Amino acid sequence: MDHESHRPGSKVLQSMTQSHPIIRADAIVLGAGIVGVSTALHLQMRGRDVILIDRRGVGEETSFGNAGLIERSSVIPYGFPRDIKTVLRYAMNRSADVRSDWRFLPNILPWLWQFWRESAPALLERAAADMLPLIERSVLEHEFLMTQAGLLGQLRRTGWIEVFRDHRSFNQAVEGAAALEPYGLSVDILDGAALRQREPHLSDILIGGVHWRDSATVPDPGALVKGYAGLFVHRGGRVLNGDAHTLQQDGTRWKVQSRKGLVVAPDVVVALGPWSDTVLRPLGYRVPLAVKRGYHVHLRPTAGAVLNHPIVDVDGGFLLAPMTVGIRLTTGVEFAARDAAPSPLQLDGTEPLAREIFPLEDRVDPEPWMGARPCLPDMRPVIGTASKHTGLWCAFGHNHHGLTLGPVTGRLMAEMMSGEETFTDPRPYSIDRFRS
Fold it and tell me: Considering the domain 3-63+222-286+381-434 in this protein, what is its CATH number?
């Protein structure tokens, strides 16, 4: 018999051959990124026998390649720019912030149009209000899971710093920070001297900065997700390789094929990030999910140079973050087909700019990493039940905040699935908002 059948509490029925058992559980979670792992953990804490299924290892897709920010200060979602100059600059690929594959633009234009409409001031304000209950608990829920997993030492309560080369953009950022005063965020405005007190090795080409202090960071996001999954397994959870596209409903249960056998459970959670729509579409759900691709590469700091905070060069259009293996250089957004070949032109264009502000040596990685952020045009994730089917649940579409919102999403999902009172109203995140 397969070794999975010997786990405590599991119910395994043998099929025609011993090499293909039927593996039973209370719930299946599809996707072993930060959202899926957090959901599995929170369900497990409520007494559920959970199986986590992914085609790859834990935390090896989108969750691997972010900037390591737990972004408590992002109380306003990233909307579509409203000024025509910025839009034209993006459209002409004249900004490091955004790059588009011209061949892909016809496919993404309807989504961009919807994104632009949802970014109107009144709608953006409503989106911010809907997202705030998740954002304001983001660091707390990570702290809870880190404490459970013995990983609290990885949490850095340093915040992050926007830095500026241009006085105009700096002044605009200062005005923007002042407009967020009603949210009670901790923000420091830094002139050039104050900036270099906090980051002594930054170049004096930078004239100032805005230090967002409520956010936290981690030095290896992929390792953090693996650490959470390690806690899940230690407590009796199972992680299997399998194909989410084999998902089928059979009466009152859901079936997914794994390498260890057929997995069966009454509840299934689709937490597949940018691939979620490919599983939901055959089931009759039309979700306007798009991807914003991004890249990173690690560079060695020059001997003796230290970076204490993640640094966003607003005018340069890139981010530098101190990570375990070096300084991570990350880019903005690339609009291209999710599975198209990598085109890390943004990295190549911003690396010389990064060397202008911080002393860097050679690249550590043999090749740049590429990932895809799952994005919805109204800037809210899908969290909750899929109303056309019994036992089908969704947790995806967190835009730029997957790492930030993974644990708080897992808590909300588990509360809903267990029939508990939820810490916030989940209706703004319902998949039904996309019904035609």
Answer: 3.50.50.60
